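Hi V.,

Quick status before I head out on leave. The structure for the redesign project is tokenized and pasted below; the design run finished overnight.
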């Protein structure tokens, strides 16, 4: 099946050459054919075809809702949907959990005319269950695999969402990120991923880790498609106070996407994020050359001063986890009886062979033992978080920057059930801790494995970043579809 963009699909459906119903059926065939290898999809929506039919009728009646009308997309399985699909975070403990209402972003997607095609596998509990975890593995779904080399990691935690897009099992997908869970799987699977500004996208109805760092974001094969999806899920939500700061933009930015989007833009090169792998650095050198050819102005190098002492990010996450996950689980009704962190831990212990064959649940235990928001260490971490935000802003101001550029990470490592993940070379914490936006775009391949380049921006400059990333994408056009090789 050809890889279509949203715009291409709209032209085909507007002309009557294609219908949403036909498109949904094509993707369902793709899932049945391809997902035997990749294992990206947990379950398909049994109502997807009927939803598509209804949207086709609306189109015929001249009631097209927008660019997502009739477009099939996939959601990560920690995003609530009020339908015949479960929301489980990949855990057997939540099997039978059918939320009573849609997450805020799902309501917006339905209003926009999108077809929720399926739920994607993920790293169980969004990769914050146990130490030495395995990205893309969940007790409910098993192991998701990288379509470029099936013995390689898809990265986590939005692994299934990324692979579904890369393998052409949907048009676009939604993932979530606490630190790197959109950016890493996107770059490792050769697609575009956006980690939005904190507050641009609501988190209500999403199984949480940390209200300090959690966000949802788009994953797509092109920058433009990612922008279309970001616009659809952005908005103010009374149930999520952080969105009160949302400087929501119109969709006019789509008209401003141009191959000239890098001209005279000042990009700071964060050299401290280089050096993780020589082959990645070589591709980054080419990316910088391409940016200059496109009219970009490189400020090389720039520095982001890190706060003195540790950021204590893990302590922040497990402290937030204790309260945020507790609130979510209190409203869960499942046959397993899990409705608290304590009962979740006991369920996992009783079902250890199924749930914990490779790694444990140390982070759940750490969450229970955390001292809360009033602890001195948590308060100190919040001060350092503020310092990092200020330091990043200072780097932008001092150098009059439009964006900061650095490698998105190293290529995919081998899946290892003995030692767990062995990732390295990531600088996703800058955006994750600060709450600032970032976007990763394909930057080339190392022995057939994708790598990406990341652009970091100031708060609520998401659409400005998209314009810059679009110009880079169009200048280079690195992405090629996967070949589903067994190994490199």
């Amino acid at each position: 099946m050809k890889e279509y963009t949203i715009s291409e699909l709209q032209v085909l459906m507007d002309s009557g050459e294609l219908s949403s119903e036909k498109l949904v059926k094509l993707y369902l065939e793709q899932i049945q054919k391809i997902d035997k290898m990749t294992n990206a999809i947990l379950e398909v929506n049994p109502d997807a075809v009927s939803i598509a039919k209804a949207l086709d009728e609306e189109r015929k009646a001249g009631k097209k809702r927008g660019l997502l009308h009739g477009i099939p997309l996939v959601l990560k399985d920690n995003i609530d949907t009020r339908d015949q699909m479960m929301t489980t975070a990949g855990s057997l403990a939540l099997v039978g959990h059918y939320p009573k209402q849609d997450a805020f972003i799902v309501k917006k997607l339905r209003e926009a005319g999108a077809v929720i095609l399926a739920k994607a596998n993920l790293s169980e509990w969004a990769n914050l269950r146990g130490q030495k975890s395995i990205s893309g593995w969940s007790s409910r779904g098993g192991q998701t695999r990288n379509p470029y080399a099936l013995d390689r990691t898809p990265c986590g935690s939005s692994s299934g969402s990324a692979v579904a897009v890369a393998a052409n099992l949907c048009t676009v997908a939604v993932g979530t990120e606490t630190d790197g869970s959109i950016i890493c799987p996107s770059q490792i699977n050769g697609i575009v991923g956006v980690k939005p500004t904190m507050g641009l996208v609501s988190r209500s109805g999403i199984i949480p880790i940390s209200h300090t760092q959690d966000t949802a974001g788009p994953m797509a094969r092109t920058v433009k498609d990612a922008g279309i999806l970001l616009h659809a899920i952005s908005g103010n939500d009374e149930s999520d106070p952080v969105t009160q700061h949302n400087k929501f933009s119109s969709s006019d930015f789509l008209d401003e996407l141009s191959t000239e989007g890098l001209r005279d833009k000042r990009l700071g090169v964060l050299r401290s994020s280089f050096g993780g792998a020589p082959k990645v650095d070589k591709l980054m050198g080419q990316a910088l050359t391409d940016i200059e050819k496109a009219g970009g102005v490189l400020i090389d190098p720039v520095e982001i001063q890190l706060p003195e002492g540790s950021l204590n990010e893990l302590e922040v996450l497990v402290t937030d986890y204790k309260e945020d996950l507790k609130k979510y689980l209190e409203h869960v009704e499942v046959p397993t009886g899990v409705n608290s962190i304590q009962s979740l831990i006991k369920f996992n212990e009783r079902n250890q062979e199924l749930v914990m064959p490779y790694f444990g649940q140390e982070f759940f235990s750490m969450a229970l033992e955390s001292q809360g928001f009033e602890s001195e260490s948590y308060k100190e971490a919040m001060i350092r978080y503020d310092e990092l935000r200020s330091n990043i802003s200072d780097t932008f101001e001092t150098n009059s920057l439009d964006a900061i550029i650095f490698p998105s990470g190293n290529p995919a490592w081998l899946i290892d059930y003995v030692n767990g993940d062995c990732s390295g070379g990531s600088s996703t914490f800058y955006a994750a801790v600060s709450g600032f936006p970032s976007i990763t775009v394909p930057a080339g391949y190392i022995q057939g494995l994708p790598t990406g380049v990341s652009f970091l921006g100031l708060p609520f400059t998401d659409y400005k970043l998209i314009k810059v990333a679009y110009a880079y994408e169009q200048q280079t056009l690195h992405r090629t579809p996967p070949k589903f090789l067994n190994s490199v």
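Above is the designed sequence. Residues 73 and 170 are 5 Å apart (CA to CA).

G. will cover questions while I'm gone.

Best,
W.
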